[in-house]
Amino acid sequence: MAWKNKPSNFALEVVKNADDHLKKIVGETLQRVIVLSPVMDGEFRASHKVTLDSPQNTYEKSFDISGNETLREGLQIASTAKIGGLVYVQTLSPYGLALENGHSQQAPNGVYALSFRYVCEKYR
After folding, report:
1. Cα pseudo-dihedral 106, 108, 110, 115, rounded to 10
2. How would DSSP label each residue in 49-108?
3. What is the C-alpha to C-alpha distance for residues 44 and 84, in angstroms, rounded to an integer?
4. Cα angle vertex 115, ends 15, 49, to 5°?
5. Of 15, 25, 48, 64, which is the most buried if we count CB atoms within 10 A?
6. How far apart are CA 48 and CA 57, in angstroms?
7. How far apart (Å, rounded) are the C-alpha atoms in residues 83 and 21?
8. What is the pLDDT of residues 40-66, one digit of tens each?
9. pTM for the model
10. Is the dihedral of CA 61, 102, 119, 88 positive or negative?
């Protein structure tokens, strides 16, 4: 009986599948954060960043009302993520903490915690 796939390739396939799953989860988390973000001028939506291995330490003020550019940039970075590495989805917006704590009629229950819970439940 011949192997359809070589057993020696099994580990490589598992790692590739894990990398793909990681990228999918990061993308969904970022998309959820962007969609749940309150929109006034697009500053908060633009503040969400994806970084690998270390968090971002500086706030870069920009605007993205639709969130499309923020999502595109984040997905581009997430596409290089590898299983076992650290991936950060974060905001350094000066009013991010207030929004997360419900100080917005558009997001009374926050943004990040809801996104995290949603993705955790989806991939249980």
Report:
1. -70
2. EEEESS---S------SS-HHHHHHHHHHHTT--TTS-EEEEE--TTHHHHHTT--SS-T
3. 29
4. 70
5. 48
6. 13
7. 9
8. 999 999 999 999 999 999 999 999 999
9. 0.91
10. positive
